[in-house]
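Dear support,

Our group has been running a series of protein-ligand predictions, and this particular one with iron/sulfur cluster is the one our PI (initials K.S.) wants archived with full inputs and outputs. We had some confusion internally about which version of the output was final, so please treat the block below as the authoritative record. The input we submitted was:
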Amino acid sequence: MSEDKYTEKVTEAGCEGGCDSPKTIRLAGVVRESIVDGPGIRFVVFCQGCVHDCPGCQNPDTHDFNGGYDCDIQKILDAVDENKLLDGVTFSGGEPFCQAGRFIPLAEEIKKREGLDILIFTGYTYEELIDMGKKDPDVKTLLDMADTLVDGRFILEERDLSLRFRGSRNQRIIDMNETRKQGHIVLAEEYMN
Ligand code: SF4
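Confirmed final output from the archive:
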């Protein structure tokens, strides 16, 4: 989804599988500070498991739903809270909407923290998510909590290294708050260079 890599696990111990917390996310890893996964300085959560199989994907290790490790969301929040310079948290992957229900408690906690917004990278289009949300309330709830959505599959033929926050030209950076307010898709034009 982005050029960045999930270089780090959240903690050295206690969060690398076998976690029995009721609130876990299947993770590939995290990046504690990124300036390429959305506006400002961001904590990035790379989830594990993706259904899209885009040719040329930068993160093929995240595709297998049996890979990665279960991580208690409290450990992610503790790592977020350690960094007062953060502007937001990015959910990437993998495909976050494949485990929408697991991301919701994390998103709810991030929303309680003043000054942090939520950006979600997804291989689904916004329109697909709206349709999915009619059958799956977790998809709708998570979509409703996004401030920014970078949507659509990575298409190798439309790859463009000059783009900010997205890998291929078909992907859109959607201002979700304006989209909800205006009732139609509003792009975050300032980032759609
Ligand atoms: S949606 Fe993202 S993680 Fe999944 S295959 Fe496509 S580029 Fe890779």
